[in-house]
Amino acid sequence: MNAGPQLTRVPLASAAPGSPRHLTVVRYGKANARPKAYLQAALHADEIPGLLVLHHLRMLLDNAAARGEVIGQVVVNPYANPIGLAQNVNAKLLGRYALSGGGNFNRQYPDVVEAVATKVSSTLGDDPAINVATIRRAVNEVLDSLAPLADTDRLRLTLMRLAADADVVLDLHCDEEALLHLYTGKPLWPAASDLSAQLGSRLTLLAAKSGGNPFDEAVGGIWWSLAERFPGKPVPPACLSATVELRGEADVSDEVARVDAENLLKFLTRRGVLAGDPGVLPHPLGDATPLDGVDIVRAPVQGVVSYTRALGEQVAAGDVVAVMVDPGAEDPKSARSEVRTVATGLLFTRRSTRFARAGDVLVKVAGATPLAERIGGPLLSD
Questions:
Q1: Is 199 left (phi over 0), alpha (psi -120 to 50) or beta?
Q2: Do 231 and 358 sit in the same domain of this protein?
Q3: Domain hosting residue 20, numbered range
Q4: Residue 379 falls inside a structural domain
Q5: Which tens digits make up the pLDDT trace of 64-89?
Q6: 191 and 132 share a domain?
């Protein structure tokens, strides 16, 4: 029988005297066992669905551990961002950006590729397993050498240290209104297609460099960046890292979260982290498309947002997806502005607030081919 879960309080930098912070990290399985999976929720602290999903997953893992079914190890970080969880302004939780000026909590993670490449350049050999172990040691050494000052950067570093040596890293998020979808590295596809199929993802968005160095890319991208750097040495993509967008911010219920947790457990079982039969892999509900094929449709003017197309609809380039209404127009007949998409594909997210300023993101449409206007800049909306 496996030992039960081990709870550890990981201290974080305090913003002021008398306001200590910590993460509560829950570990299943033996230290250093493989495969290792790391899961975290609410890095954007106002994205709540993942908090409830990991609550249900922990109960499932408790039972699996009691049955002796934890072969590898699972590290669960139930709330990844206590800084953001404390940012309550006028009775509203604001957890996407640090109010201190530290930026988006899911951007600007440590880029360790250059330092790791320097450390391993003379030691990589022809055995991929040995190379993986060598690189993981180097990554940990580089991360241990960093000493940022800002509390937000210290949180980023702590999260990187928890995840950097994992075989599977899943960062649970949500959008405002959305279908369940994934973001992952292009070099990880189609190997990650079992995750998409098991979760019932309607869409998987692929990129090697999305801009801003978000958490999943900072962890997983180490491997494909080093593989490009050392083409003569076998450097496998040793970490399946992905951002899981658990639908919309209001899609929070025990019924939905329980199913998501069960699917995560089946995925971990299929990946050999847990013993047991995961069952037949479900038929995939969506395709993988390039992140630079997503049309991020923005409001051309300020006004009330009236959507003309629903989540999950297939739309064509030139279709009207929303109408902006200027409530202050002198003539109501001239108050309406049509908003069109330039992509043909799946409409998978919408803004939840039905008033927008010019430039605010309204909807996202995932097309199968890259869009010229998306090439050369950051691929993620901030």
A1: alpha
A2: no
A3: 6-285
A4: no
A5: 999 999 999 999 999 999 999 999 99
A6: yes
